[in-house]
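Researcher: Re-running this chain for the archive, since the previous output was lost when a drive failed. Same request as before.
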Amino acid sequence: MPNFKTTLRMIATLVIIGAAMLLFYSSQFDTLPKGAKPQFPAKMQLLNGQVLEATALPRKPLVVNFWATWCPPCRQELPQFAQVSRRYADTVLFLGIAVDSPISELNRFQSDFQISYPIVLGTNEMLRAWKAETLPTTYFLNTAGEVVRAHRGALSEQELIDTLESILHP
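Model: Regenerated C-alpha cells:
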C-alpha cells in the first residue's frame, strides 16, 4: 500500500499534467486575433455546385459563420443570422461555412431557415486556418478584411446587430 508521501506525489503529478493539458488545449481553441487578415481558399464550393472565388468577395464588412447541421447552438442562431443578413444585405456580406452533412441536408437547412446568403462547403484546412475548432464560430471582418471581432458559441440577434453597428458606425 502506498504511503502518504507517494500518494501526494501522485496527486501533484496528476495536477501538473492536468494543468499542462488544460493550458495546451485551451490555446488550441483561441480565435484569430483582432487585426488578423485570414485568407479564404482561392475557390470555394457553394451548395448549388457553383464556385465562389475569393477574389469575387466584395470589399464590404463580412460576417463569416462556421456551423454544422448537428450543432444545437448553430441551429439556435441560424434564424437570427438569416433575418439580420436580410436587414443588412446592402451593407454587409454574410458567408456561411458548413462543415458537415451531405449537400442535400445542407440545402434543406438553407431552405428551412430561409438563408439567403451564400453557404460554402468548409474543409479541414479552412477550420484550421480560421481556428474554428468549436462550433459555431463567427468572425466579423471590416472592409480591409481584418478581424474586428471573433465569437465562439451562439450569438443572439442583438449581439449580431450591435457588432454590425459598431463596424458600420465606429
